[in-house]
Amino acid sequence: MKSNPISKYMLRFAACALLSVTAGCTNLDEELYDRITSENFLQTRDDVTRDFLRAFEHSYWSIQGGSTFMLQENSSDEMMTPNRQGDWFDGGQFQRVHYHTWTPQDGYTSDAWNALYGGVTLATNSLEDLEGITDPTKFDMTREELDGMIAELKVLRAWLNIRLLDFYRNIVIVTKVKGQTEGGVQATPQEAFAFIEQELKDALPKLSTNTTLGDNVTGRWTQGGAAALLVRLYLNAKVYTGTDRFADCATFAQDIIDGKYGAYALESRWDAPFDYTNPTSKETIFGFPGSFAQTHWQYDGGMYFWMLPNLAPSYFGFTDFGNANPKYAMQPGRDVDSVEYSFALGKPFIKFQKYKDDLRLKKYKNLGNSKRDGMFLYGYLPYTNPAGKADTVRGFKGPYPLFLRDQVGKFLDAKPGTKIADKVSNMNNADNNSGLYPVKYPYYPSDDANKISSAYAEVRFAEIYYALAECKYRAGNKAAAATLLNAVRKRNYPAGSPSLYKADGSQLTDQEMLDEWMREFLAEGRRRTDLIRWGVFSTGTWWDKKPDGDNHTDIFPIGQNVLNSSPQLKQNPGY
Fold first, then answer.
1. What is the residue range of the signal peptide feature (predicted)?
2. Residue pLDDT, tens place only, 285-328
3. Which residues lie below 8 Å from residue 291, measured CB to CB, with a gap of 6+?
4. Phi, psi of 94 (to 5 degrees)
5. Is residue 377 within a helix (H) or strand (E), and if so which, with residue range?
6. Which DSSP helix (H) or strand (E) runs through 312?
7. In 375-489, which residue ranges form alpha helices assigned H by DSSP?
8. What is the DSSP string of 114-175?
9. How far apart are CA 493 and CA 502, in angstroms?
């Protein structure tokens, strides 16, 4: 059977284009399987659509691929990957992330660069293809449709570039890949910021709205999505460029809330933004569509499925993926004797416990009929084993039941409340009882029709409220900030809860703002960015983490493998 020339070309191009950013791809010649070449392989409307979509799948993968999620979360005060009796030590690489002692020789410093530029080059390649179409009617398309596709690809590329800017600051702006034999020079952070900003502004009026697209909006960059990326860009502008853009952030955020870029609404249930209904939720500004039978990157090993204790799938009744492997857990709030740590940062579960009636504090439990309760796994996790007998989740280092606790140490088979002799609590001294686990996206049982059906909500309407609240807070208007935060927070507590902020905003402080960002966006791959924006990433203290020597760790080094491939690239300061 003859191979598909388009698929062969695109797969080979993807690998080669990635190299063109860093080293340059010296040979773009193709082995032709028929007469279709790179200049004329777009023959039908379906060809154009496939070309348009290619970068989206890679970009969905990049939410966790290339260690992007790990670097955002494990370098922060939120998540950890400790040495669990030999498991997950992995040469100390995760400890270096926790302690901010990474080096350019650590593979993940290259992996994240390559993962994100893989998306940039794919998007740019497709942009060149689509921008080269002079007569869209040949593909049964209108000029408006084609321009909309081009605009969406530019927004997708902007999303990838924002993440590159956030990680590395001194990045290469890629606008052309066809025929390129070497990578470009790095732009200044200010130049990169200006490029991303202009690309989003240029694309915005050519995009559809979620109102226009209706139930077909998931996976599509809309006007609301582009405006939301401008909110992200402006919120962090002082960090990226040295210039405060909070006023611009507030303007775009208010416009989104007021409906200028589409009709959005907050969900009334705390779990709805992550549930199987979220593809059509008005809270999802941009989401990557997922399903059990096809793609579901947030549920894979690089992200949430490795944020579960051993045998947790048996507790869920979801056994399609086999057993879990606890790579990620929340950092502890208490020492081995259950005494709360004194530092202000971190301690995520304790930050939730500050408001005792938080509905998310319940232990995660599947209720049947595609419903669940609670957001955390803690304590014993009972289930019925294959023999039909009552059992409880155990680890792989001993036959004893696991008792999951907000502590890190060698508890082994010690019963809850029992004092243990080993008082060491650090990244190198954990067991499978150590740490609690958040479950944001549900794991419904294997026989549930809606298992693993949630979209990945990359941009939620709640983020716009929180960004605007931060802008109001920084401008000295605590009352307005409290109102905005409470608009989201009220779904986390029973009606009439005393946990809502007072109307005057008097409870809000810098620390409370940071804590609230953590509570709402726990394990959503943004904590490092928030800590940097508030000036505490390199200066702060949290569990088993002292302040860094200086702030050069606010950005990652460009990996040595990347530097070796392109003599034009210069290493980031401090490395």
1. 1-23
2. 999 999 999 999 999 888 999 999 999 999 999 999 999 999 99
3. 452, 453
4. -75, -25
5. strand 376-377
6. helix 312-316
7. 461-474, 478-489
8. HHHHHHHHHHHHHHHHHHT-S-GGGGT--HHHHHHHHHHHHHHHHHHHHHHHHHHSS-B--S
9. 15
